[in-house]
């Protein structure tokens, strides 16, 4: 009989017992552990630099009991730090001693003159805007508190006035009533309310001296973005337009404009336009439906109201969208995709279909006078990222990512001479550079080191370390991944990453992690893979070319040849486990129905079939299955045969692989019933399976509690130990 028990703060359906941490034969004396992973500190989000360049502010994620280390918008503590050229003074955490939760702070931004710093400060169950003064060192909470989590940084309209977004209170998911009536005509159903609410926010402007606050938008508005004008007297806000673009199929934007010095209602500038941005002179730039870039005087009415728009560029130049303006406003730089270049490892999707492809970008500098453009990187086989102007406008700084090796390079380009020089290069990953006195400030990380802030001289490239956030990891020998290549079942050449256990030369088992294209992460610190690599396992991460209507089959065609390649290497013992989460869990469940080459499998948040996920009660899931990540190309009523062939559930009788399933009961992305469905089907079929249910866990199983995060990693290690190391003989 299968029973529900408690162990380490989790509820689970048991086909096993609670075990202690095993002692692994041949393991390092100091492996990287789950405890180490949860203690890793890396700067989250953008660093704010004061106008003088002598002070910076940043956020460090919370590593307390309530975890959010893998959230898209984590919370943490705000720190300020002085800079004396490349040298850094001690960091100071803000918000302590205010009766608030300084570990729930986010989005620090300096005022134009650098005298103040605005950020969001956590209070008991709520959030408020706070301002720190550089001269006194004091912090003051201002503005009305709001429930919910800040999603956008505040913006200064002057040295004393701040515009900020106020998110709506979070939806209470799982609320029960005696009777619920759902209508097919309802705009938003309860299943979608949680996700729809996340994008709703109000907009307010507050005087940081007097505390006077004015609401611009209420907190039920679907606010996408806002931007304050260069002189600080106006602000634009972007909301989805009720109109649709039948040709492009993209979300259209409605743009509203306020004059902050007046109490008038906002003026609608565009009803069907795309994103607008401010020019340095206070005019607005936007892309019209015809694809041209258009300037609009800030005081004029927009095209939606019959006003006159002035063409800025047309024809070929219409592809340009400004990324950064020169200090004098005479030029801008733009990242432009070359449509003739595609990633050979990513399937070109059908129109309107989801794709993980990032366009191959070149860097252009464009004259704002006549629209003439010059390509600065045509000779580089690399992706261009994050261009920054020098203070005098004579040079540009930018980073590139090599299209084949993923090595990164930081460049300086002198515009007058047309000369490009390297400032930094190697097997490391760079963050977006920021201009500071004497050069650039940016984060640098590698596969074996979490990110830290560094100062790089803008002429010589000499680097100076600004932060050392993780000294506790100095005694760990991390694994450096290798870039391998293999041919999938269709004869297409794909890449893969391989983490070998440091120092291991033989008898090494392999854990295969599956998602889609994973090789671009070769120079980024990956704590979960390092846990297993430093515990004596090789970690294989093959790229997968997912094709429309062949979602699961695409994984089989890539994963199996990659595993066969690595199993043939001398250092392995031939034993392999398959591991994936979410979309990777779907892939895991499908692959083990098509092959028995794996000694075990681990699957987190598993959707074993695509019918129930399509009809799980949320419109977003239907769209995601048809045209999003699953790429089925239609509904079950249109392409039924695809759903039957690509759903693991209908092939579970083929499974011979022991499976560990983990699932959060409060997972609102892949509902817990999906994981239960797979477990009970395997149980009915007499297959070996364990289901672990985390009663308070969400989709990641990392964000709720430290205990759950530690528990899930220990169970994975125990599972790998049991099936990949114990002398039970191979099942094959």
Task: Provide a compact summary of the structure.
The protein is mainly beta and 732 residues long. Helix content is 14%, strand content 35%.
State the major sheet: 10 strands, mixed
CATH class of the domain at 4-38 and 474-609 and 647-724 equals Alpha Beta
Could you give the distance between the termini? Answer: 29 Å
User: What's the overall geometry?
Assistant: globular
Helix content: 10-25%
Write down the overall mean pLDDT: 83
Low-confidence stretches: 1-28, 65-72, 245-249, 298-308, 728-732
Placed side by side, the strands forming the largest sheet appear as 1-2-43-42-41-40-38-39-37-36
CATH topology of the domain at 4-38 and 474-609 and 647-724: Rossmann fold
Structure description:
It is a single chain. The protein has about 725 residues and is mainly β. Among the domains are: about 5-40 and about 475-610 and about 645-725, Alpha/Beta hydrolase fold, catalytic domain (Rossmann fold, 3-Layer(aba) Sandwich); about 320-435, Neuraminidase (6 Propeller), CATH 2.120.10. About 15% of the residues lie in helices and about 35% in strands. The protein contains 10 helices and 43 strands. The strands form 9 sheets. The chain has a 10-stranded mixed sheet with strand order 1-2-43-42-41-40-38-39-37-36, with helices on both faces. Strands 31, 32, 33, 34 and 35 form a 5-stranded antiparallel sheet that branches. α4 (about 550-565) crosses α5 (about 585-595). It is globular.
């Amino acid at each position: 009989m299968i029973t529900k028990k408690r162990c380490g703060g989790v509820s689970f359906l048991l086909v096993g017992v609670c075990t202690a941490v095993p002692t692994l034969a041949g393991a390092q004396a100091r492996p990287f552990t789950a405890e180490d992973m949860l203690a890793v500190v890396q700067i989250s989000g953008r660093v704010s630099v004061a106008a003088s360049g002598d002070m910076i502010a940043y956020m460090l994620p919370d590593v307390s009991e309530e975890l959010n280390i893998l959230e898209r918008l984590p919370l943490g503590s705000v720190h300020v730090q002085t800079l004396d050229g490349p040298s850094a003074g001690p960091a100071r955490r803000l918000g302590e001693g205010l009766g608030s939760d300084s570990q729930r702070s986010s989005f620090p931004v300096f005022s134009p003159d650098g005298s103040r710093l605005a950020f969001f400060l956590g209070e008991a169950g709520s959030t408020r805007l706070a301002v720190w003064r550089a001269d006194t060192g004091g912090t003051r909470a201002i503005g009305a508190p709001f429930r919910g989590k800040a999603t956008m940084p505040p913006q200064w309209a002057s040295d004393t006035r701040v515009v900020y977004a106020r998110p709506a209170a979070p939806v209470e998911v799982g609320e029960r009533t005696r009777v619920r009536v759902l209508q097919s005509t309802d705009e938003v159903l309860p299943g979608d309310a949680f996700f729809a609410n996340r994008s709703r926010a109000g907009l307010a402007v507050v005087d940081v001296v007097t505390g006077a606050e004015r609401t611009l938008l209420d907190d039920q508005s679907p606010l996408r973005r806002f931007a304050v004008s260069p002189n600080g007297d106006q602000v634009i806000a972007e909301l989805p337009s009720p109109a649709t673009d039948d040709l492009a199929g993209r979300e259209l934007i409605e743009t509203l404009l306020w004059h902050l010095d007046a109490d008038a209602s906002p003026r609608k500038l565009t009803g069907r336009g795309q994103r607008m941005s401010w020019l340095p002179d206070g005019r607005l730039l936007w892309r019209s439906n015809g694809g041209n870039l258009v300037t609009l005087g800030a005081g004029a009415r927009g095209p939606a109201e019959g006003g006159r728009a002035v063409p800025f560029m047309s024809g070929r130049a219409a592809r340009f969208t400004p990324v950064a303006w020169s200090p004098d406003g005479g030029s801008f730089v733009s990242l432009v995709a070359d449509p003739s270049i595609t990633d050979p490892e990513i399937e070109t999707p059908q129109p309107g279909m989801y794709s993980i492809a990032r366009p191959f970008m070149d860097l252009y500098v464009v004259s704002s006078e006549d629209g003439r453009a010059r390509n600065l990187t045509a000779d580089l086989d690399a992706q261009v990222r994050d261009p920054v102007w020098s203070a005098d406008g004579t040079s540009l700084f930018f980073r590139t990512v090599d299209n084949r090796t993923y090595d990164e390079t930081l460049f300086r380009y002198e515009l007058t001479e047309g000369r490009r020089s390297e400032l930094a290069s190697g097997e490391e990953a760079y963050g977006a550079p920021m201009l500071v006195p004497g050069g650039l400030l940016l984060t640098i990380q590698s596969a074996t080191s979490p990110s830290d802030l560094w100062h790089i001289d803008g002429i010589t490239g000499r680097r100076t370390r600004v932060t050392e956030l993780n000294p506790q990891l100095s005694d760990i020998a991390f694994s450096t991944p290798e870039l391998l290549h293999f041919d999938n079942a269709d004869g297409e050449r794909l890449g893969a990453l391989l983490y070998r256990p440091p120092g291991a030369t033989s008898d090494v088992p392999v854990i295969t992690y599956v998602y889609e294209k994973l090789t671009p992460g070769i120079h980024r610190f990956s704590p979960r893979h390092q846990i297993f690599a430093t515990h004596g396992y090789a970690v294989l991460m093959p790229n997968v070319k997912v094709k429309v209507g062949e979602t699961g089959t695409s994984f089989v065609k890539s994963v199996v040849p990659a595993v066969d390649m690595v199993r043939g290497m001398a250092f392995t013992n031939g034993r392999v486990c398959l591991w994936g989460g979410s979309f990777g869990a779907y892939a895991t469940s499908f692959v083990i129905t098509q092959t028995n080459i794996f000694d075990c499998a681990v699957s987190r948040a598993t959707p074993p079939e695509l019918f129930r996920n399509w009809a799980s009660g949320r419109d977003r899931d239907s769209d995601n299955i048809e045209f999003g990540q699953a790429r089925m190309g239609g509904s079950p009523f249109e392409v039924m045969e695809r759903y039957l062939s690509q759903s693991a559930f209908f092939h579970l009788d083929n499974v011979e692989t022991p499976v560990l399933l983990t699932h959060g009961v409060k997972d609102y992305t892949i509902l817990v019933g999906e994981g239960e469905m797979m477990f009970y089907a395997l149980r009915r079929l007499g297959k070996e399976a364990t289901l672990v249910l985390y009663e308070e866990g969400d989709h990641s199983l990392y964000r709720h509690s430290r205990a759950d995060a530690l528990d899930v990693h220990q169970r994975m290690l125990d599972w790998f130990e049991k099936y990949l190391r114990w002398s039970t003989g191979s099942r094959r």
